[in-house]
């Protein structure tokens, strides 16, 4: 007998990290619409999918602050109030968008333009420096499938995929068997450059323990030595010259090399200049062999946020619409800087938790002004919000498009019904836009 | 202000009359949140008594701006001519290129009597044919001074933070104080008692001459001078 209580959905895309694994199998209890089993996902992905099941942390009704406490309300009242706050604001901030689908991101751009506000996504505290470096010196990159089939030298610089992108190694970069790399791990040389002896470093062929915050110096020295310059120092950034020479030989002799880099480069001191130098190194190694570079993006659709913002406005993040047209300047229009200078007088946060990630001083300024949050779960940000919209979780309870870390768009699947009264991010944003247009007396 | 348009007269008390030539503007007060004063200015003079916000005199082609206070980030960004004098400190990206631009400061002089922030003179570029020599004088400087320099001249009277002249293709950086950390890709080539700058200026003193940045080119005309 076939058990009809359980429905299994195959080839589900995991909405957690930038790897966007597309081979998950999810078992759903049809009567209760809860997830009861997950196969193929990593621990983090599994936790995210299970977190969509009913729990005391999940919002199911719109909430509005009354007498200092969040109380339940109706969707119409919440939309009305949110629209009023945003219209009144002289400098509203729209932030987040990296953990939702592209359709919602597009609505975010529309809303920011109508309001003349500031639009930003989580890249501004994550891989924003990578984008700055790409704008300065360009980038030579490829898709993960290419790396899987061709790469025989894989360098992980300042990233720890064993913990942050657990299936990346198995699906794209280290253990997987590729078309030209039939023997998987044995056909690849893996180098990890990291100040810490991470678990990724422990399974690498070579671990280069660079001094903390001195990645720029090491990159710079490698570039000079690739050009055949003999350096005066014996030790650079804690690494001996002989070791650097050995690595350069491996790089030059490889058939197809790739550098994956993470927060160790973008968020340590020197920020975008680390990435700038890493890209220049990649470019220069192409004089000897094929070499490419790819950032290890964190949120599953942060690449999508950058892509959607770029095709709508020309810029990937930190966009100011106050003059009616988009202007771009990280450092001036990026969320943390704006909040530190206390320029923001209302904020709308979509699928993000800045209170946990931003510097404390900027969070204090965020909480000083009206705060609207579109979020499925209770977070430190939503706890201090004036209005909370519960939502269907993109990629689990509603469909949408997401971009993998290598800019490959994939269609997210809906595996179960959202809780009653929960709309998708895109629909909530559309309702706010319609309400604002109505209040302003403009045609919808 | 934000997404609203306001009249200048609502915020400032304005006196005087406008002329077409030799216009002189004096601004008083705390202007820390006022941006883009003197943007694309071509002639005349602006005197600011107080601190000033971002993008002071960016892309200006002529004239002079004097600040009797501190300036925020991007002061004199992508300067194409004229003179900028800041009697206090200046923020990051002094005379730098904006995001994604491959040509930063092309001509003109910036003098900062206090300290400057990170990445000053980013992508500065001279032009021998047009006789354009961008120059920055400052006291202390932040990290990555003159990064991606393509012909700019920088004279630092005090100390610099880490990595001055990173990715410098050509140009001159003169440091009269100490360098917190020099890049390994700079090589010592000798000592000099007199440095002649491309704009004709001559600086006398005992200096160690380094060539670099060798990560950009094996043989380079980029120079870093450090006072003995």
Structural description of this entry:
The complex is a heterodimer of chains A (444) and B (228). With 444 residues, chain A is an alpha/beta fold. Chain A folds into 3 domains: 45 residues, no CATH class; 204 residues, 3-Layer(aba) Sandwich (Rossmann fold); 168 residues, 3-Layer(aba) Sandwich (Dimethylsulfoxide Reductase, domain 2), CATH 3.40.228. Chain A is globular, with a radius of gyration of 23 Å. By secondary structure, chain B is mainly beta. Chain B has one domain. An 11-stranded mixed sheet of chain B has the order 1-2-3-4-5-6-7-8-11-10-9, with no helix packed on it. The radius of gyration of chain B is 18 Å and the shape is elongated. The termini of chain B are far apart. At the A-B interface, helix 4, helix 9 and helix 12 of A face loops of B.
Gap from first CA to last CA of chain A: 53 Å
Rough shape of chain A? globular
Question: Which sheet architecture does the biggest sheet of chain B show?
Answer: 11 strands, mixed
Determine Rg of chain B (CA atoms, Å): 18 Å
Highlighted features:
heterodimer, A: 444 residues, alpha/beta, Rossmann fold, Dimethylsulfoxide Reductase, domain 2, five-stranded parallel beta sheet, B: 228 residues, mainly beta, 11 strands, 2% helix, 31% strand, elongated
Concise overview:
With 444 residues, chain A is an alpha/beta fold. Chain A is built from 18 helices and 21 strands. With 228 residues, chain B is an all-beta fold.
List the helices and strands and how they pair.
The complex is a heterodimer of chains A (444) and B (228).
Chain A lengths: L5 E7 L11 E6 L4 E6 L3 H8 L12 E4 L2 E4 L2 H14 L3 E5 L5 H14 L2 E4 L6 H10 L6 H7 L2 E5 L3 H4 L3 H6 L15 E5 L5 H4 L3 E3 L6 H12 L8 E2 L2 E2 H13 L2 E6 L1 H4 L4 H15 L4 E6 L6 H12 L5 E2 L6 E2 L6 H6 L5 E5 L3 H4 L2 H9 L2 E4 L5 H4 L3 E3 L10 E4 L5 E4 L12 H16 L4
Parallel strand pairs in A: 6-7, 6-17, 8-9, 8-13, 9-10, 13-14, 17-18, 18-19
Antiparallel strand pairs in A: 1-2, 2-3, 4-5, 4-19, 7-15, 11-12, 15-16, 20-21
Chain B lengths: L7 H4 L12 E5 L16 E5 L14 E4 L12 E7 L20 E6 L22 E4 L11 E7 L13 E6 L11 E10 L5 E10 L9 E7 L1
Parallel strand pairs in B: 1-2, 2-3, 3-4, 4-5, 5-6, 6-7, 7-8, 8-11
Antiparallel strand pairs in B: 9-10, 10-11
